[in-house]
Every structure is written in C-alpha cells, then in structure tokens.
Design goal:
- The strands form five sheets. The chain has a nine-stranded mixed sheet with strand order 10-11-9-8-7-6-5-2-14, with helices on both faces. It has a four-stranded antiparallel sheet with strand order 1-17-16-15. Strands 18-20-19 form a three-stranded antiparallel sheet.
- It is built from 16 helices and 20 strands.
- It has helices spanning 7-16, 42-51, 85-104, 126-139, 159-168, 182-187, 194-206, 225-236, 269-285, 302-309, 349-357, 371-386, 394-398, 400-422, 444-449, 455-458; strands at residues 37-38, 57-64, 66-67, 79-80, 110-118, 142-152, 172-178, 211-218, 242-247, 289-291, 295-297, 313-315, 318-320, 327-330, 335-338, 341-345, 363-368, 388-389, 426-428, 434-436.
- Helix 4 (126-139) runs parallel beside helix 5.
- The chain has two domains: 18-330, pyruvate-formate lyase- activating enzyme; 370-458, Arc Repressor Mutant, subunit A (Orthogonal Bundle).
- By secondary structure, it is an alpha/beta fold.
- Helix 8 links the parallel strand 8 and strand 9 (242-247).
- It is globular and about 60 Å long.
Length: 470
C-alpha cells in the first residue's frame, strides 16, 4: 500500500512546488491529443474497432453535449440550447452510431463499465435517458456487476431524473459542484445553492444510487483559503465516496469566455497553491486516500482497492478501475481507446451528425501507436497510476527491444530526474526501478513529462497547448 501524505510532505510541497510550475499534459492518453493526426482515416478506425473487445469486456462512454447555459470556466465540448427537438435528433443519431459501430466490431464483449458525460447528461428528459440506456445495452449487454455511472448537474436534475437513472440501474453518480461560494458561482456563471447539491445527493442515495462523487475546482475567481474551506465544510458534510480536486485550466485559446476572469480576482499561482495544499490536508484528515494526482476516495472505494491491487488506470474518464479494457465512445468529440489506436469523433455537432446519418463512422483524428509509443505509454501509466516503474517483468510485457530502449531512456533521463530526486519526489533504485514518494505524487504530471518523447511535437505552434500543472 502506498504511503499517505504527511503534514511534513505538505509543508515541503509549499516550498518546492513553485519551482515546478509550468504547462503540461494531464496524460489521459499517451501520446496526448495535440500530436494525433488530423483527418485520421475512417478505414483505420474500422480496423481498430474490428479488434476491440477481444478480451470479452468493453467500456462504453457516451458524450451528451447539451447544456442550458454556459459555465464560464468550462472548456468542454458542449451545445448551449433550450430547443427540445435537438436532443431527440441527437438520440436518433446516437442510435445510428451505435448500430454502425457495433456492426464494425468482430467480437461480442459484455459492457463492464458504462459512463455518460457532457455537457449535461441530465439535460435529457427521463424518457430520453431510458431510451438511450436501452439503445446502448441492447447492442452491448451489461456484465453482472457493471459500473454504470453518469455526470449530473444538480441545477437541472429532478426527482424523476433520479428515478429514471435508478430504474435503468445506474449505480454511481458524479455531481458537478466546483465551489459553493456565491461570489465565485456568480463569476463563473453557475448559481448552484448548496441545498440543490444536498437534496440531489440524498435523493440518489434514497433510490439506491449509493456511490456518490463530487467534482471541485480550485483556482476560480474570488477563491481564498477561507472561502474554499467553507466549500469543503459543505461537501464533506455529505460524505461523498470520492472527490475530484481539479485545478482550474485557464485555456482562453479554447474557451474564449474565460478571458474576463483576469479582471475578476483570479487567484495567483501562490494562492492557488495554498488553496490546493489546504484542501489536500482537509481531505486526508477527513480519512480520504489520495488517488493519483487529483482524486480522493474513501478507503473502501473501488479506486482505493484498484490502487492497492495495481490495476488503477487512467483514460479520458480520469482515473478508473479497469486494467486492459478497450473503450468505445459515442457522440461528438468522444474519444475511443482501441487496440493500438486512439480515435476522436468529429467535434462539431452538425458535422458529426451528418457523418453518422450517412452510416459512416464520424472519425476526425487519431493515432496509431508505434512500438515505442506502446512501452512509453506503459511507463507513463505506471507513473501516473501506481507511482512507480518496475523494470522486472517489463520484458515479458513488451519484449526485449522495448526493455533495452527503456534501459537506455532511463539512463538518459537521469539528469532530468535529478531535481526530483534531490527534492525527495522520486527515488531511483539500484535495480533501475523508479518510485514516486508520497510527496512526489503531487508532481505526477511533471515526472511523467520526463518520459514523453512527443512534447516537442505538441509545442511547435503559436497557440499554447497545455494547461498549468499547478
């Protein structure tokens, strides 16, 4: 079991972290999206789908892009609408996409994980939720004990939504909270009284959806240590199973509506750091375990069990419990992780719909992993998920050539790893193994960047590529 962060670790972090501030990937994939090939061939997408689910298991993600209003911090792919006809047309298209995708697959896997994200999935009406769920599970039958999860917005999620989700069998619900303070909520254009979060949490549990997660964001306008303490007081009173503590990503080249935040008391780097460290103290003192770089879970949660078992994995849904399961994704901008291949669908809702209506895959861009990409992805995943890299057994997993390449890369990386070693973030063993310390887990993105051979490829344009790591 990994060591937990101590008070001394957090004191050291406040001293060390400013030296590591900079932009970097979140490593929900490797290689990361900016280096993927635009205009990726649909034929390549079909070839990858043909091999998907060979293990007998599959993970499914559906992107539901609709929102009633724009949250100004958000950089997700979304469609702001109140047109009731638009979701109906979307469901028609999703059903066509499900059919086209299923026909391209040669295997018949069971779905062990189903997740809906957005946007706002509960923008759909209860009958539409049931329609989408049945359309999906008719083509991809659920495995016994499958995780069935959804992201919801408490401002639009009603009691009949909760009833529909429970009737479908959803067993995990993730609530977007971000911050409970009125001044911050006003600045980010997301007025959400805490009572809405509380009432939805209680309603979900009463209907048998007992696994509840909250998303929080630090670094938003008007936040202070004291104000975020009040947010933590509120959310911890509901005892969620998991909490995600995300750093606000100021990516104005993607989300133009963020450009006014600099005039609204956006916390500076040092204040962001203090808010983050104080939040980590609060969560660990409340009994939550630190999972990866930004997740916290109760000791009995599946994420904590996966961390201990060495099966924790990271993909476009964040940290997940499933090792070695292909991800097939649906909807505009959705990303599939297929054997040896990443594929992203068309981002623009209209173009996506046109392609799907033609009975085609809405392929936009993707990447076929080289042999080097494959072993480097394993290294970065081990760092991001397990906090260690073990050379023993690497040859059995990836072959002799990959093991030689890893040994050479580790030798070449030693000068770049030296600052991490000196600051007590990384330990290098005589066996060649690498271990991230409890303190070092706050720096996982920076440590993983040492092994990223594509960073230069992603940084050649004039537009910034990645968000700040702290």
């Amino acid at each position: 079991m990994q060591k937990e962060l101590t008070e001394r670790d957090l004191d050291d972090a406040e001293r060390i972290l400013p030296r590591y501030v900079g932009a970097g990937p979140r490593y929900t994939s490797y290689p990361t999206v900016p280096v993927w090939q635009d205009a990726f061939a649909e034929a390549g997408h079909r070839r990858a789908l043909a091999d998907a689910g060979e293990s007998g298991e599959i993970s499914l993600y559906t992107h539901i892009p609709f929102c009633r209003s724009l949250c100004h911090f958000c950089a997700c792919n979304r469609v702001i609408t109140r047109d009731p006809a638009l979701p109906e047309r979307y469901l028609d298209a999703i059903e066509r996409e499900l059919e086209t995708t299923r026909a391209a697959m040669h295997h018949s896997p069971q779905c062990v994980q189903l997740h809906w994200g957005g946007g706002t999935p509960t923008h759909l009406e209860p009958a539409q939720i049931e329609r989408l769920f049945r359309s999906t599970t008719d083509r991809f039958p659920l495995a016994p004990g499958a995780e069935i999860s959804i992201e919801v917005d408490p401002r639009v999620t009603r009691a009949d939504h909760v009833a529909a989700l429970a009737d479908c069998g959803f067993n995990r619900i993730s609530l977007g909270v971000q911050d409970t303070e009125p001044a911050t909520q006003a600045a980010i254009h997301r007025i959400q009284p805490f009572e809405q979060t509380r009432d939805l949490t209680l309603a979900a549990r009463a209907r048998g959806i007992e696994r509840v997660s909250f998303d929080l964001i630090y670094g938003l306008p008007h936040q202070t240590e004291a104000s975020f303490d009040r947010t933590l007081d509120a959310v911890l009173s509901l005892e969620p199973d998991r909490l995600a503590l995300y750093a606000y990503a100021h990516v104005t080249w993607i989300a133009k509506q963020q450009r006014g935040f600099e005039r609204r008391d956006l916390p500076g780097p040092r204040l962001r750091l203090r808010i983050m460290l104080r939040a980590i103290r609060r969560l660990t003192q409340a009994g939550y375990r630190s999972i990866g770089m930004d997740h916290f879970a109760k000791p009995g949660d599946e994420l904590a069990a996966a961390l201990d078992a060495g099966t924790l994995r990271r993909n476009f849904m964040g940290y997940t419990t499933l090792e070695g399961v292909d991800v097939v994704a649906f909807g505009p901008s959705a990303i599939s992780e297929l054997p040896g291949t990443y594929v992203q669908a068309e981002k623009e809702h209209g173009r996506w719909g046109e392609r799907v209506a033609q009975g085609r895959l809405a392929t936009h861009r993707g990447h076929v992993l080289s042999a080097e990409d494959t072993w480097r992805r394993a290294v970065i995943r081990d760092v991001m998920c397990q906090g260690e890299l073990r050379v023993a057994g690497f040859e059995a997993r990836y072959g002799r050539d990959a093991t030689r390449a890893l040994a050479q890369d580790l030798a070449e990386a030693r000068p770049r790893l030296a600052p991490f070693v000196e600051d007590g973030l990384v330990e290098l063993q005589t066996s060649g193994d690498l271990r991230v310390t409890a303190l070092g887990r706050l720096f996982l993105r920076q440590i993983a960047m040492v092994f990223d051979a594509h960073l230069g490829d992603a940084s050649t344009g004039k537009v910034p590529t990645y968000s700040q790591t702290v």
